[in-house]
Design a protein that fits this description.
single chain; 279 residues; alpha+beta; Arc Repressor Mutant, subunit A; Chorismate lyase; 2 domains; seven-stranded antiparallel β-sheet; three-stranded parallel β-sheet; 10 helices; 12 strands; elongated; DNA-binding; DNA binding
């Protein structure tokens, strides 16, 4: 009973502070009252206050700076990822790099790992379901990490059913897949098309590796945009995952934000609407 009462007390404190932050009583960058002040205000012990603060840290609302106190986290400027209804770019293709540079992106971790990576892998449970293949089925995996000019990062993964790309290991053919940004999608559409597209948006907490690669803090949620390429028989040919910090990116749909949903956004229009990536 005593443990339950203690938990209820720290939850009460966390709820009160959370509401104060959301309603703007504590603005981004401002300090929360000290542990001693909060303990006196709520008639609890300092360890109970610490439990409440730990919960707010995990939620991504505050940071604790040793020797200084607890501060409301600043709200980063959010960039927009546009889900298009026009021609879908193969954002995992190395040949797409000149296009992303024009919109303020660059390849991340140039000095630490290859900027683009591709290999064969086996379908885990998640990918087996996503692509409608058996567990352990051979897949073509392409990966890259992008960095925006404000230091925000996105991680790109593409997984394709290897049965649909039998010439992947051919050296000359593989060079075309790498150099020409539309070549892989055009080849798949020619041999298995016409293609249809399905895009899902989800969020979850990141793994330790994802959090480190994307410079995320504890408590930040991970935004995942998963786009499926589906052939005329309903078979899922390829899936592209875009992973980004949810506190730095949001999504928009071209059908909803464009005056003419059949027109392409110009670079100027993208800049005006804060759009930094089209998928």
């Amino acid at each position: 009973m005593e443990a339950d009462e203690k938990e209820a007390r720290w939850r009460t404190i966390a709820t009160a502070l959370r509401n104060d932050i959301i309603e703007g009583r504590y603005t981004p960058g401002s300090p929360l009252p000290s542990e001693i002040t909060l303990a006196e205000q709520f008639s609890v012990s300092r360890p109970t206050v610490r439990d409440a603060i730990k919960n707010l840290v995990l939620e991504g609302l505050v940071n604790v700076i040793r020797g200084r106190g607890t501060f409301v986290r600043p709200l980063p400027e959010r960039q927009v990822i546009l889900i298009t209804n026009q021609e879908r770019p193969d954002v995992a293709a190395p040949g797409y790099h000149p296009d992303i540079v024009r919109y303020g992106w660059d390849l991340g971790l140039r000095d630490q790992e290859p900027p683009f990576f591709s290999d064969r892998t086996q379908a885990n449970r998640d990918l087996a379901i996503a692509l409608g293949v058996r567990l352990g089925h051979s897949l073509i995996h392409r990966e890259s990490l992008w960095t925006f000019e404000n230091h925000a990062k996105v991680e790109i993964h593409s997984y394709a059913n290897a049965d649909m790309i039998p010439d992947w290991d051919d050296q000359k053919r593989n060079a075309q897949y790498r150099k020409r940004p539309k070549f892989l999608y055009q080849t798949l559409a020619r041999e298995h098309g016409p293609m249809e597209w399905m895009t899902l948006v989800m969020a979850r907490m990141p793994s330790d590796n994802e959090r480190i690669r994307l410079n995320m803090q504890v408590g930040d949620a991970l935004l995942i945009i998963r786009r499926h390429m589906v052939d005329r028989h309903g078979r899922r040919i390829e899936v592209t995952d875009v992973k980004a910090p949810a506190n730095q990116f949001e999504i928009a749909y071209a059908l909803e934000v464009a005056d003419d949903p059949n027109a392409l956004f110009t670079r100027e229009e993208m800049a005006e609407n804060g759009i930094t990536l089209v998928i």
